[in-house]
Design brief:
Helix content: 40-55%
Order of helices and strands: HEEHHEHEHEEEHEHEHEHEHHHHEH
Radius of gyration: 19 Å
Strand order of the largest sheet: 1-3-2-4-11-5-12
Shape: globular
């Protein structure tokens, strides 16, 4: 187990800044209330989609970890219900700044459910010998190419440009390289890519550049940057560009994973959690103003106006079953073809996909 934990930790550290799910430093961890190591738990009774409102399962405690960013934004309604004592299970949610804080706890059994980057789910499945499984897609693509100019309307227009971005050796790099190559551009030759450690560094580089600088950023940092840099606009939605060149897969940012042992011991309760989480994502998408207040209140973004503008662009969703399997497996296959270690060395088999 020690060897397994070390291997997973090494990969998780390398994969910490995945597709903008987390923009906070790796050392920052916050509970739903924003205070370190303090979590929220729920008491009894709210209904969920396709539910009678009466729990079919015995009341169960869930230790849930999520990443600060879009993957947690879809969870805020459930977090609010937990704080108010209105949920039908004991949902204890802790929010973290980076994936490398979550991975070892999931491996050790200190966490039951985690909202993590998609490829990290594949890494964990391989490194634990199948001890985790993926249950749902919770966030699709959140990456956008931004610029202050008007000359980028297609990927081909990136030829000769310098792109500032984050995520060297992680999903942002894989996504950018894949989209560029599928459009006939060679990264490092036709397009210069400068990687920064944080989104704030990308913004600083753009502000210091002359002409019309170009960057690839995730939401909600796109919105934050637009509020700080006059004339900054979205030129390309990388989710749309991915779909153009890979119609048989999907650009998947975040997923819900769980320890297989926990699911097997609490399957009815776990299914109710998935119903409740789906209801939370639907609420967030349908009630942006109220959701934005919750997002800011839980300090996922600094200000409510940023959350209001960013939420519709964060591609928050809930996809399970066969559709989830098709999207996740297609996405992991694209990453695997670029770098086998991006998914843990081997594509996960069918046992990885819960309910599919």
């Amino acid at each position: 187990m020690k060897k397994m934990l070390s291997a997973a930790l090494a990969l998780a550290v390398a994969l910490g800044l995945l597709a903008g799910c987390s923009g906070a430093p790796a050392s920052s961890a916050a509970s739903v209330s924003g205070a370190p190591a303090v979590s929220s738990s729920a008491a009894a009774g709210s209904a969920a989609p396709e539910s009678t409102g009466t729990p079919a399962a015995e009341r169960t405690a869930f230790r849930i970890a999520s990443l600060k960013g879009p993957t947690t934004m879809g969870l805020v309604k459930l977090m609010d219900e937990a704080d108010k004592g209105e949920a039908r299970h004991d949902y204890e949610v802790t929010m973290y700044g980076a994936a490398d804080e979550i991975a070892p706890q999931l491996i050790k059994g200190d966490i039951d459910v985690a909202l993590v980057p998609c490829n990290l789910a594949g890494v964990l499945y391989n490194k634990t010998g199948g001890a985790v499984e993926v249950a749902a897609v919770n966030t699709l693509g959140v990456l956008y190419v931004v610029t202050t100019g008007d000359d980028i309307t297609s990927v081909a227009d990136l030829a000769g440009k310098t792109i500032y971005t984050t995520g060297k050796g992680t999903t942002p790099e894989y996504v950018l390289n894949y989209v560029l190559t599928q459009n006939g551009l060679t990264p490092g030759e036709d397009v210069t890519i400068e990687y920064m450690s944080e989104a704030t560094e990308v913004l600083a580089a753009m502000q210091a550049s002359s002409g019309y600088p170009v960057a690839m950023l995730p939401q909600p940092y796109v919105t934050t940057a637009q509020m700080q840099m006059e004339g900054l606009k979205v030129a390309l939605d990388m989710t749309e560009e991915w779909d153009k060149v890979s119609p048989d897969s999907a650009l998947v940012t975040g997923v819900v994973v769980a320890r297989k042992e926990f699911v097997e011991q609490n399957e009815a309760a776990f299914n109710e959690f998935l119903e409740d989480y789906k209801a939370s994502t639907e609420f967030v998408n349908a009630n942006v103003d109220e959701a934005a207040a919750l997002v800011a209140g839980y300090e996922i973004v600094p200000k409510e106006p940023i959350a209001q503008k960013a939420l519709p662009e964060c591609n928050i969703t809930f996809i399970s079953g066969a559709d989830m399997k098709a999207k996740v497996s297609g996405y992991l296959k694209v990453l695997y073809d670029q770098n086998t270690e991006a998914v843990g060395g081997t594509l996960p088999d069918d046992a990885f996909y819960y309910g599919a």
